[in-house]
Structures are given as C-alpha cells and as structure tokens.
Amino acid sequence: MGNIQLQGVTKSFGETTVIPSIDLEIADGEFVVFVGPSGCGKSTLLRLIAGLEDISGGKIVIDGKDASDSPPAKRGLAMVFQSYALYPHMSVYKNIAFPLKMAGMESPAIDKKVRDAAQVLNLTDYLERRPGQLSGGQRQRVAIGRAIVREPAAFLFDEPLSNLDAALRVGMRLEISELHQRLKTTMIYVTHDQVEAMTMADKIVVLNKGNIAQVGTPLELYHHPRNLFVAGFIGSPK
Ligand code: ADP
Ligand code: MG
C-alpha cells in the first residue's frame, strides 16, 4: 500500500499548460519531497495526485489500480492542509474525529482512533481545547491527526510549515520525519525550502516550470546536479 505511479500526467488550465508531462514512481513507504520555485507546479501536481484537480492526460496508478478518475475519497490518500484549515468552533477531539464521523464510523471506534492519534502526536492533554487555544505547532499536529485517523496509503503535505516561525519549523520538521519513521507510510511533501527538502527526503523531485528537472536522493542531487537549475537550487550552499 502506498505505491503511486504517474504515467505521462499532464495538466492544463484552459490554454495554459502547467504540467507538460510527468512520469514518476513513488515507492511504498518513501518520503518524497517535491521542491522548486514558486509557481513551478508543486501544488498542482499534489492536487492531481489527491484528486482535487482532474488530470488533462496520462494516468495515475495507486497501488496497482488506475485511480485517474477516482474521486479524492476513493484514493485512500490524506491531504494535510495548513493548520488554519481546522474548524475553529470544534474541540481538538472533534476536529480529529471529523473525517471518521463523516465516514459513518461508530463512536467507540472513533474514540479509540482519536486517542491513539493524540498519543502519537502528544495531544492527549489538549483534546478538549479549541484550535485558538493552541500553539502553531500544536495546531499543525491536530491537522496531521485528522489525516492519521484515516490510516491513508499516503500522506500529502503542501507546505505545511510555511505559517510557522523559523524555530518552530525546525521542530515540526523533525516531528514529521519521526512520524514517517514510526508509521512507515508513504509521504509526499511539497516545499520551496531547500533545507526542508535536503533534511527530510528519501527522494527529492526538483520541478522547474512543470517539468521534472531531476529526481534523486539528497546526496545525489547535491553532488551530481544534472544542470545549472538543479545546482542553483540544491547544489550550492546559500
Ligand atoms: P507552486 O505550488 O509550485 O507554487 P502551483 O501549482 O500553485 O505552483 O501553480 C503552477 C502554475 O499553475 C502557476 O502558474 C499558477 O498560476 C497556475 N495555476 C494553478 N492553479 C490554477 C488554476 N486553478 N487556474 C489557472 N491557473 C492555475
Ligand atoms: Mg504551492
């Protein structure tokens, strides 16, 4: 579970082609980072995988099944939105329980899942609070908790830490890496931050104008950038 293949995936908005054609295989359990400058198509690619946007051509295969036309809920993936996507009027407990309630799960089963997720994320003491009564880092953990309870085949993160201050960002980066080691679930993480890419990824996908400039481990990209774009983005210390 958690193998994702993009086969000649394209995306246009009207006349504008944002993703000319992408081939990519993400292995089960891999931590893959999509990195590139603003506007290069990172969010669009993630949204295509999630099913929040329709592909214009090609194929998306998830765990051996053609998911190109599947609605988001059928893909078994969980998108982690920035923490401001929490429901402000609901407790932490209810925020995390929400997707399970929507899916029609019974309360006792929901309760177990919410408490297990809270334990993993160090939120047990905060379940009755509202998002406004939490720190930025705690709010981000609630957003992750809401994804965890669904036991997805993969987690999709779109710049989840960009709202946090620099110090908190470093801590959350470690927390997400630790979560990946614990759950061993596929994670796709979008960022424009080279340091995040270098420190978190098993595999980095560098995007430039909707094309893959290079795919490789952080060390491969650092030592053997294929071109000046990759070198400028990853290879050279800033
Ligand atoms: P990134 O996340 O790397 O900053 P995006 O995927 O958000 O980039 O955007 C890539 C390109 O696609 C940009 O030029 C953006 O303007 C365009 N784009 C994204 N979404 C839409 C949309 N719904 N309609 C038209 N153009 C879009
Ligand atoms: Mg984006």
Automatic annotation (TrEMBL):
Its topology with respect to the membrane?
Answer: Peripheral membrane protein
Query: Which keywords label this protein?
Result: ATP-binding, Hydrolase, Nucleotide-binding, Plasmid, Transport
Q: What class of enzyme is it?
A: hydrolase
EC code = 3.6.3.19
Q: Name one GO cellular component term.
A: maltose transport complex
Subcellular location(s) per record:
Cell inner membrane
For whether the record's keyword set contains Hydrolase, the answer is yes
* Family to which this protein belongs: Belongs to the ABC transporter superfamily.
Report the protein name in the record. Answer: Maltose/maltodextrin import ATP-binding protein MalK
Q: Which organism is it from?
A: Hartmannibacter diazotrophicus
Q: What is the lineage of its organism?
A: Bacteria, Pseudomonadati, Pseudomonadota, Alphaproteobacteria, Hyphomicrobiales
Q: Name the gene.
A: malK_8
* Shown residues within the full chain: 1 to 238 of 333
